[in-house]
Design brief:
The complex is a heterodimer.
Chain A lengths: L3 E12 L2 E12 L3 E5 L6 H9 L6 E6 L2 E2 L5 H7 L1 E4 L11 H10 L6 H6 L3 H21 L14 H14 L4 E5 L7 H16 L6 E5 L3 H7 L2 E6 L2 E6 L1 H6 L1 H7 L3 H5 L4
Parallel strand pairs in A: 3-8, 3-9, 6-7, 7-8
Antiparallel strand pairs in A: 1-2, 1-4, 4-5, 9-10
Helix pairs in contact in A: 3-6, 5-6
Chain B lengths: L2 H4 L13 H12 L4 E7 L2 E6 H17 L7 E5 L4 H12 L3 E5 L5 H10 L2 E6 L2 H10 L8 E4 L13 E3 H14 L3 H8 L5 E7 L7 E6 H14 L7 E3 L7 H15 L1 E4 L6 H8 L3 E4 L1 H17 L2 H22 L6 H22 L6 E4 L6 H9 L4 E5 L9 E2 L12 E2 L4 E4 L4 E5 L6 E2 L3 H7 E2 L2 E10 L5 E6 L4 E2 L5 E2 L1 H8 L5 E7 L6 E7 L1 H10 L7 H5 L2 H15 L8 E6 L19 H7 L1 H7 L5 E9 L5 E12 L7
Parallel strand pairs in B: 1-11, 3-4, 3-5, 4-8, 5-6, 6-7, 10-11, 12-13, 13-14, 26-27
Antiparallel strand pairs in B: 1-2, 8-9, 9-19, 14-15, 15-16, 17-18, 18-21, 20-21, 21-22, 23-24, 25-26, 27-29, 28-29
Helix pairs in contact in B: 2-3, 2-4, 2-10, 3-4, 3-7, 5-6, 9-10, 13-14, 13-15
Classes of the chains: A alpha/beta, B alpha/beta.
Chain lengths: 266, 650
């Protein structure tokens, strides 16, 4: 558990002089569920975007498995094993569910244009391998058999969230960034999604380290191994869920809303 | 026609010592590696299991069971979706001399506990985590339960209870035992006799506690043979098994008929994909309760409304031709040549497409049974060229005893008895039947057995009569007949079935017994009414809200008016209320086979019914609903009551 897989050192991010993140440092250990919480506008999603490479921090360094990734583009980081889902669904709504998931797998396909056109030997073996992986590991795990050939845009919101997770998993990541995976879901969908997160984290076949941004405190405190709290772009605490719940600064930052949040959905 | 005349070539001979396991061994040896016994869609691909593999798996599980302590006569509970492992376990239990007991997958904890305890079950074969959880929750109250077996590993990571064992592990133990004693399996199977009990089948019962009917190998085998004497199946046929195994109809198709003729049984990927999977397979035979056919008609009616202008015109024209020719067929009148030509065109452009979409393109015999089905549905299916036939029977006679013959279909009857079966009308118009498939009694309920089984005649509790063509007409449960204000007897089921032909009505309860007029409680169909509301710019957030919208009331009223047309004045529905929820088996309103529990529902919604006869137009309800995991939630709702204005044109 103790091996550090993702590390941020002194991250500064500002937009035209407005500081979004100020000197944020943290470590994510291999195999854990690490949550980032904080009030609205605290910089949680900014932090996710920095890790994933959509934003480039002005100062600070990011390390993935000991290698510096600060300057890499998002697709290079994905190739290293870092994948994500989005707060607002970012699927290709005109494509089928299966095509969306396959797209996540595309990164791992080595065949060129010519090989794919002829579909012979290595290419077909590779395709069969990819199909097997998607069907057996992802579709079965996330229980999306019934919609695999549906057009994504026609599906209910909760199902689309699940498809996003499926696509992120198709990358076969070591670390997955989950940006509010439970937002907008109903009670039943929340329970399903929470179970999937636990599954990909604990299942021998996956063992994916999860970085979770979430507002549903009940779920965060239940699932997380460690929690980091941001407030106005500054890290104010990190530790186990019970430490965080008792931390006076956290309580102060959340005061007013915390009461409601802690009892959410319970 | 005597039984011997109807005997067919290739039919198996059922001797006194033939059992299902013996037949299994025989069929597996005959068909071997060459033929597919079953298929399951898994990971998006249909995966076959040959007869040789089937036998091997059953062998391993049987000896695994024996090694774990299953003795002859022990009960094995099975619960879960339809899947090959379920059938293997059932056959294995029988091979070891045990007795299979099926539970509906959505049974509540209390029902599970009652049946596990009452049946004295020793083993509990679960599909996955959900079913295992149910077993773990009740095991303290069921001390006779020894082992809980599961086969789907999903979510089972942290389960480390000594009572739990995976099916893979059971099979591994079985393989070891085979190494040690290669002859044991054959010895076990050869010990069996036709009169041994093979299944303990709990009837859902619309009125009382579940009763466990004991069925023998002989019962199951003769039932299958006699049905296939009427409608022969072929070994090359396909059948899709997706209705609960805890329903006798599914046992009858998968085991009684399936094993005997050796057709391929197909299992869908997930319950949600069943409809797609049925279409992929295109089964030759199917048997389903009316509810499924009602859903089919509903989906066709709704989808055609969404189609383009040309398709809608084609549909309307084609259906006119279909209905006309179907009516001629029912009346046993010859179809004139020009109608035949028209029908040929309609078949080409419409019917074959509809059948394909419903997965019925290859179906030779489609049966419905278990509850009454309206004539409108019957006409619909015959219009589109599906040979839909009514079946009548009960668990106590191993499934069925009466069926329509192909060229002799009357939709107000259930047909004629199958070979070796006698049906007569007893006292109080009760339907009695006698056949080799009549069960041996209820488990641990001698009084009930004595009431039901007299001199080999099975007393069904249903009333009916035999019409001039020798067809059996089933009224209903005797107590379900209503007496109208003019003293006329009328069947509420008939009205309900007519109402349910409307795509907007999912369920209905008709009340009118000894009342001044007839009323109805309606459960709207959430999908179709929801879509209708969207199309008409009506906003809603939930079933409860949707059901109470005035426009929806007017929509339902127009559907009732349609049904009222052609009914005698006293039988017309005068007032109705939309219920704030659908009828649900979890609330005990329906049986697990989704028949309405009339007395219970009438009592539960007594307030609504009273108000309908009290000239009020609004009722405040305060009630509760039960979720599948046993949680109970309170519901508060205002229910509108509405008159059906134009009592129906004549």
């Amino acid at each position: 558990m103790s091996q550090v897989i993702l590390e941020a050192k002194g991250i500064f991010l500002s937009f035209h002089g407005v500081a979004a993140l100020t000197n944020v440092s943290f470590e994510v250990r291999k195999g854990e569920i690490f949550s980032i919480i904080g009030p609205n506008g605290a910089g949680k999603t900014c932090m996710m975007n920095c890790i994933n490479g959509l934003y480039h921090p002005q100062r600070g360094n990011l390390f993935f498995n000991g290698t510096e990734i600060t300057g890499l583009t998002p697709h290079r980081r994905a190739a290293l094993g870092l994948s994500r889902t989005f707060q607002k669904i970012e699927l290709f709504s005109g494509m089928t569910v299966l095509d969306n998931i396959r797209l996540g797998r595309h990164l791992h396909l080595r065949s060129g244009i010519l090989g794919s056109a002829i579909y012979w030997g290595k290419t077909s073996r590779e395709e069969i391998e990819a199909r097997k992986f998607i069907e057996e590991e992802i579709i079965d795990l996330l229980e999306i058999e019934a919609v695999r050939n549906e057009v994504t845009g026609m599906l209910p919101y909760g199902m689309q969230k699940r498809i996003e997770l499926a696509r992120a998993l198709a990358v076969q990541p070591e670390v997955i960034l989950l940006d509010e995976p439970l937002a907008g879901l109903n009670l039943e969908e929340v329970e399903d999604m929470a179970r999937f997160i636990v599954d990909i984290n604990e299942d021998e076949r996956w063992k994916v380290t999860c970085v979770l941004v979430e507002h549903d405190m009940g779920v965060v405190m239940d699932l997380s191994d460690r929690v980091m709290v941001l407030n106005f772009g500054v890290k104010i605490a990190d530790g186990t869920p019970s430490e965080i719940q008792e931390n006076p600064e956290v309580i102060k930052a959340y005061l007013g809303e915390v009461e409601d949040l802690y009892v959410s959905r319970r | 026609m005597s039984a011997a005349d109807e005997r067919r070539i290739g039919e198996i001979e059922i001797t006194e010592d033939l059992t299902l396991p013996k037949l299994l061994v025989r069929q597996c040896t005959t068909f071997g590696e060459q033929r597919v016994a079953m298929r399951e869609k898994e990971y998006g691909i249909w995966r076959p299991v040959t007869w040789a593999q089937y036998l091997q798996y059953v062998k391993e599980i049987t000896l695994g069971f024996v090694e774990l302590g299953l003795e002859p006569g022990d009960k094995v509970i099975m619960i879960g979706d339809n899947r090959p492992e379920a059938l293997w376990s059932e056959m294995a239990a029988m091979c070891a001399g045990g007795i299979g007991v099926w539970l509906f997958q959505d049974c509540l904890m209390d029902e599970v506990q009652y049946i596990v305890d009452h049946s004295d079950a020793k083993f509990y074969v679960a599909e996955g985590q959900e079913e295992v959880d149910k077993a773990l929750a009740i095991r303290d109250r069921c001390p006779k339960l020894k082992k809980i077996i599961w086969d789907d590993p999903k979510g089972m990571r942290h389960y480390e209870d000594p009572m739990l064992i995976s099916l893979d592990e059971v099979m591994r133990i079985g393989r070891e035992r085979i190494q040690k004693e290669p002859d044991l399996f054959d010895n076990l199977v050869n010990r069996g006799q036709g009169k041994d009990i093979c299944l303990l089948f709990y009837t859902s019962g619309t009125t009382s506690l579940p009763k466990g009917a004991l069925l023998t190998h002989y019962n199951m085998l003769t039932m299958g043979r006699n049905l296939m004497r009427v409608d022969p199946c072929k070994p090359s046929d396909d059948f899709v098994s997706y209705l609960p195994f805890a329903w006798i109809g599914e046992q009858m198709m998968s085991i009684s008929c399936g094993l005997q003729i050796g057709y391929t049984i197909n299992f869908p990927e997930e319950p949600e994909t069943a409809q797609h999977n049925v279409r992929e397979i295109g089964p030759h035979v199917m048997f389903a309760p009316p509810r499924l056919y009602e859903q089919y008609t509903r989906s066709v009616q709704v989808k055609h409304l969404d189609a383009t202008w040309l398709k809608r015109v084609l549909y309307r024209l084609g259906m006119k031709i279909g209905y006309h020719t179907a009516d001629l067929k029912f009346a046993k009148e010859p179809i004139p040549i020009h109608w035949k030509i028209l029908r040929w065109f309609a078949e080409l452009f419409l019917f074959s497409k509809i059948r394909d979409h419903l997965g019925l393109s290859r179906v030779r015999h489609a049966y419905t049974g278990g509850a009454a089905m309206g004539p409108d549905h019957f006409r619909f299916f015959h219009a589109i060229g599906v040979n839909l036939k009514q079946i009548y029977g009960q668990t106590e006679i191993a499934g069925i005893s009466v069926v329509h013959r192909d060229d002799d279909i009357k939709f107000d009857t259930v047909g004629k008895p199958i070979p070796e079966t006698e049906v007569k009308i007893g006292e109080n118009d009760e339907i009695l039947s006698k056949s080799p498939s009549v069960f041996v009694g209820y488990y641990k309920m001698p009084e009930e057995t004595a009431k039901t089984l007299k001199d080999g005649w099975l007393h069904s509790g249903d009333t009916g009569f035999i019409d001039e063509d020798g067809h059996l007409v089933v009224f209903d449960r005797s107590k379900d007949i209503m007496i109208l204000s003019d003293g006329r007897k009328f069947s509420p089921q008939f009205l309900e079935a007519r109402l349910k032909f409307s795509p907007y009505v999912k369920d209905a309860l008709v009340v009118g017994d000894k009342r001044p007029y007839v009323t109805s409680i309606i459960c709207i169909d959430y999908n179709t009414v929801g879509k209708w509301a969207e199309d008409h710019g009506i906003n809603y957030t939930s079933y409860t809200e949707l059901s109470q919208i005035p426009q929806v009331y007017d929509l339902v009223e127009s559907q009732i008016t349609e049904v009222n047309r052609g009914l005698p004045d006293v039988a017309k529905i005068r007032k109705f209320a939309n219920l704030y929820k659908e009828f649900d088996a979890d609330d005990d309103e329906l049986t697990r086979t989704r028949k309405i529990r009339r007395a219970f529902v009438e009592n539960r919604y007594k307030d609504i019914i009273d108000f309908m006869y009290a000239d009020k137009d609004m009722l405040h309800m305060d009630t509760s609903i039960t979720y599948e995991d046993g949680r109970v939630a309170k519901i508060k709702a205002d229910i509108r009551l509405q008159d059906v204005k134009d009592g129906g044109r004549k």
